[in-house]
Automatic annotation (TrEMBL):
GO terms for molecular function: iron ion binding; iron-sulfur cluster binding. It comes from Paenibacillus athensensis. Belongs to the NifU family. This is SUF system NifU family Fe-S cluster assembly protein. It comes from the Bacteria. One of its GO terms (biological process) is iron-sulfur cluster assembly. Residues 6-123 form the NIF system FeS cluster assembly NifU N-terminal domain. InterPro entries: NIF_FeS_clus_asmbl_NifU_N.
Amino acid sequence: MLDELYRKMVMDHYRNPRNKGKLPEGTVRLAYKNPTCGDVMVLYLDVGEDRIHDIRFEGEGCSISMASCSMMTELVKGKSLTEVQVLITQFTKMIKDGNPEDIDLLEDAASLSGVHALRARHNCALMGWQALQKALQIQ
């Protein structure tokens, strides 16, 4: 039952991505590619006052990568950079180790917890999150 709910949530984010599109000039822009397949994305950030004011993405890829990007943008928008780092860490632990310290922090993104068992799909789920980490380092 829970697996079906999670599957529906992932497909909803894939079919109806949140925060898809460009942000105006003057924002951080980072192109990123999944190193293990053809999934690609461009991440746009408006960061100021130690907070993500707005975030958007464009991209093409599998349902896991695009749903994960959509979930990530919803989750981090409006959060402080400190909160965002915690979320990146928790999501990465969930995917790689299968045991985040606080899965409830991840909200819809927790629906991707089953990807942990699919090692070949780890990079799909992590693509947007890794792009966000890189973008925050260059902003």
